Every structure is written in structure tokens, then in C-alpha cells.
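Entry 14. Structure prediction run on the chain below.
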Amino acid sequence: MASVNKVILVGNCGRDPEVRYAPSGTAICNISVATSSRRKDKTSGESIEDTQWHRVTFYDRLAEIAGEYLKKGRPVYVEGRLKYGKYTDKDGIERNTVDIVATEMQLLGGREGMGGGADDGGAPTRSAPAQRNAPPASKPPARSSTGFDDMDDDIPF
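Output returned:
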């Protein structure tokens, strides 16, 4: 029988990445990711937010990319697998751990905070990358004579 060990997280990076290198040269990056859910308390009717923290480990090239581009507070998509472990703390108590070993990562949100700076020396605004990357204004393309110019572009596929 086949088995599956797959985790998908969409949350916010809880701290800046920590990148280190193993003696073999392998890059290792650790982050924490916060995921939140909301529910309404049945007795009081108040909205309650439940935040879970996840330890995520990246290896090799993905670790270097995560270390370079992830920052505290940035939204991120992480895909990977669960890894369970045990260790003994300084008081001699055995503790269990659950880590996510990431195999995929996607930066979410805008490009703010990615560098490239605004003119005022601060972080670029949301519209700055769009303005910088926009093509120069030009005349609209010529209409074709195929007879399909008046058709809607609301094709669902």
C-alpha cells in the first residue's frame, strides 16, 4: 500500500531565516511559519483567533533561496513532509519535535521589502515595482480583419 506524507502551509514567516552550512557544504535554512484560523466562541459570540507555529527546514539550493528572499512577516507558501524527532533537553527531559522538511516554496504577496529601494531611501511601495516594470506607453495594436474583434474575451478556459 502506498503512503503519503505531505504538508502544505500558507502563512507568514515568523522570524528572519537562519542559514548555516553543514561540513559537507550543504546549505540548511530554518524558519518558523505562523498559520492562523478564526472561529466564533459559542458561549460569548466573540471571534477567537488560533495561531499555530511551524518549524520549517530547507536544504540545498532551496535553503539559499529562502535565506535570501524570506523575511520576517512575509507571506509564504511551503510544501514538504513531516519529520518527527526526539531530543533530551538540558534538564534531562526527553522532548518530541515535529519539523516540516520543505520541498517547495513560493513567495506570496507583493514585492515590497525586496530591495531595489524607493527614492526616499525607504522600502519600495506596492506600486513602485509596477511603475518601474511597466512598458512605455504606445498606441493600441491594430485591429485584425478576422471578424472576431467584437467577441467577448470571457472564455472560461
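Residues 7-37+49-115 form a domain with the OB fold (Dihydrolipoamide Acetyltransferase, E2P) fold (CATH 2.40.50.140).
Filed with the rest of this week's runs.
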